[in-house]
Amino acid sequence: MTALLLATLLAASGVRAQELGAHVHPLLISPGGYPVFYSSEGPLSFVTATPRDLPPGAKDAGEVLGRSCQYRISVPLSASLQATQISAAMGNGGYRKTLADIRKERPELAGIYDVKVDVETFSVMLGIYTRLCTVVSARGYKTGP
After folding, report:
1. Count of structural domains, the chain
2. Domain of residue 118, residue span
3. Using one digit for the tens of pLDDT, what is the confidence trace for 45-56?
4. Any domain includes 6
5. Would you say residue 3 lies in a domain?
6. Is the pLDDT of residue 39 over 50?
7. Is residue 75 helix, strand or coil?
8. How far apart are CA 94 and CA 88, in angstroms?
9. What are the φ and ψ backbone dihedral angles of 121, each rounded to 5 degrees?
10. In degrees, to the nearest 5, what angle opens at C-alpha 39 toward C-alphas 124 and 125?
11. Is residue 70 domain-resident?
12. Is residue 34 part of a domain?
């Protein structure tokens, strides 16, 4: 039974990826050079509600903001602009982490809608240190009394 459920889920995810086609690109920080450590998650795709999709009786709860980041350190092995580098990248810059942070900050929300996603990149000294953040801004809503 578990194998059948797993096979169904895998088949469904493959069909969905084919529907999205070339429009699906995970946003992972590039390790650069020779990576010695890489543990990073980035956003891929997120389907959200619009104002007309809200449940009956839903009340607007204002704007919410969430952010999650990936980080990279890249060290050149010589004093040249084209030098080989060793690097390490880590962090969870995916939607799951960003939305979990929003839920933690605003536990009273029933959900979010009208979602906008930005990507912020910060780099220092020719990319020796880089931060890549996923920023989600949305409207929250509450249900019930």
Report:
1. 1
2. 25-142
3. 777 888 888 999
4. no
5. no
6. yes
7. strand
8. 18
9. -120, 135
10. 10
11. yes
12. yes
